[in-house]
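Run log, item B.
One chain of 295 residues. Sequence copied directly from the ordering sheet:
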Amino acid sequence: MISNRLFCFCRARGALLFPLVLLLLAGCSSSTSTQSSSSATATTTTLVASASSISSGGSLTLSATVAPTAATGTVSFYDATTSTTLGTGTLSSGTATLTTTALTTTGAHTITATYGGSSTYASSTSSSVSVTVGASSGTTATTTTLTASPNPATTSETVTLTATVSPSAATGTVTFYNGTSSLGTAPLSAGTATLTHTFSTAATDTLTASYGGSSTYASSASSSISLVVTAASSGSSTCGLQDATNSAYSTAAYVYDLTPKIRTIRYESPTGHTGHEDNDEGQASHPATDTGKTS
């Protein structure tokens, strides 16, 4: 009797617990589905500059608009010509602005804006905007050009970077860059600055040179050039040769003429028979006498 009651009790409790277990499983499944379907919302960034040309050191306002406008975070403004970050701005209603006087290098500048993203919005970068910077009042505009030699080069070669600044009377220094990394600085002499550098990694490098300007000459930056660097061939051998007049070994280069030397020698045998022999060394097999007869 007690056993039957206990069995009925367990069945009753099981009937109550079973729907609860189903509800718990359904809740877990729903939560997992929601988490796996969540992802950052795509964004677009648009950049506008307050002017297309300014004087060196002049004020320029950059405005970046990020869509959707609910996106939060910051926008970084980047000058690709000088490989520098001009500054950052915080988004407010989808817009971030930066006012800068950092554009001092004369010439065309390529500027972009990058939204860094957030936990719910993906990052994005704007199309580039070009701003031309002219010489400030009282200074002479300059231009800078860059060359590299040799190009292409190997990782074992020393490359000479040459920056030419015009007018050649300009004074000051030139800084050489590989991408955003400075390779070094060299002084101008008669309008030219040179720097030697060995590139240790095989790659295609993007090089630029930036003239810093002076009190009378405006700064300027070169256009970028590509330097192709390949890996140097590994290993080399030198053959040491014994000098006939010196017991020491020499690594000097020896050239041998290996062209066969063939000479035809006529001779006459003691029996009066005549004939000839060809010898690669240019020597007769049977030495001939002055009269052409062999001994």
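Observations after the first pass:
- Residues 175 and 185 are 4 Å apart (CA to CA).
- Confidence is low (pLDDT under 50) at residues 6-10, 21-37, 236-256, 281-295.
Flagged for discussion on Thursday.
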